[in-house]
Amino acid sequence: DVFEQPQPVGHKKIEFHITTDIPSVLQINSEREEKNGEGFVLHIYLILTLYLCATTEEINNAGFGKIFPAPTSNDKMETEEENDEIPSEFISRRELEKNRLSREEMEKYSVFKNYEPGDPNCRIYVKNLAKQVQEKDLKFIFGRYVDFESEMERNMFDIRLMKEGRMKGQAFIGLPNEKAAAKALKEANGYVLFEKPMVVQFARSARPKQDSNEGKRKK
């Protein structure tokens, strides 16, 4: 009588309210384990842990939240040397710049005195060429401004190297268009070929002669 007698405690029903959808298999297992008290709680905890892990793995496999590594330098196109893809059989822009005189250096050569590029057209004039220069050397330099996959540009590309007489050491080069000729003049003028700097200008365009009978036409 001195000590309070413990009141008999019956089995209590434990309920779980879970917002996440649980597969029917888990619901069946929960009904079977409701009578096991604390053992049922532990069992449900383990099942939920496995279920959540499986769900997380499915999400990861689907690509959600993945972090892809940044592309390496090998995946990037190397355009530092060439912005326009030039075949390897022609000179590169880097080589042109490396062996080209600066504007200050050009002023020291008499051949650049009173230099004028001329009126833009698709034909350029090159002078101060060394005697060793051959057509293949000029093609190596100026061929970079021609698209040889185009039949029209191939046909328009023309090199006339003068090797005799007063025109010796000079050349006329026909390019596909005025834009290509302007680029060639800008990049090749002052390029040192066989220890002599080339002087590159626009060639004087030949104008058709006036018809002598034109003035005799009826007024």
TrEMBL record:
<keyword id="KW-0694">RNA-binding</keyword>
<protein>
    <recommendedName>
        <fullName>RNA-binding region-containing protein 3</fullName>
    </recommendedName>
</protein>
<dbReference type="InterPro" id="IPR045164">
    <property type="entry name" value="RBM41/RNPC3"/>
</dbReference>
<dbReference type="InterPro" id="IPR000504">
    <property type="entry name" value="RRM_dom"/>
</dbReference>
<dbReference type="GO" id="GO:0005689">
    <property type="term" value="C:U12-type spliceosomal complex"/>
</dbReference>
<dbReference type="InterPro" id="IPR035979">
    <property type="entry name" value="RBD_domain_sf"/>
</dbReference>
<keyword id="KW-0677">Repeat</keyword>
<dbReference type="InterPro" id="IPR012677">
    <property type="entry name" value="Nucleotide-bd_a/b_plait_sf"/>
</dbReference>
<dbReference type="GO" id="GO:0097157">
    <property type="term" value="F:pre-mRNA intronic binding"/>
</dbReference>
<dbReference type="GO" id="GO:0030626">
    <property type="term" value="F:U12 snRNA binding"/>
</dbReference>
<feature type="domain" description="RRM">
    <location>
        <begin position="122"/>
        <end position="205"/>
    </location>
</feature>
<dbReference type="Pfam" id="PF00076">
    <property type="entry name" value="RRM_1"/>
</dbReference>
<dbReference type="GO" id="GO:0000398">
    <property type="term" value="P:mRNA splicing, via spliceosome"/>
</dbReference>
<keyword id="KW-0539">Nucleus</keyword>
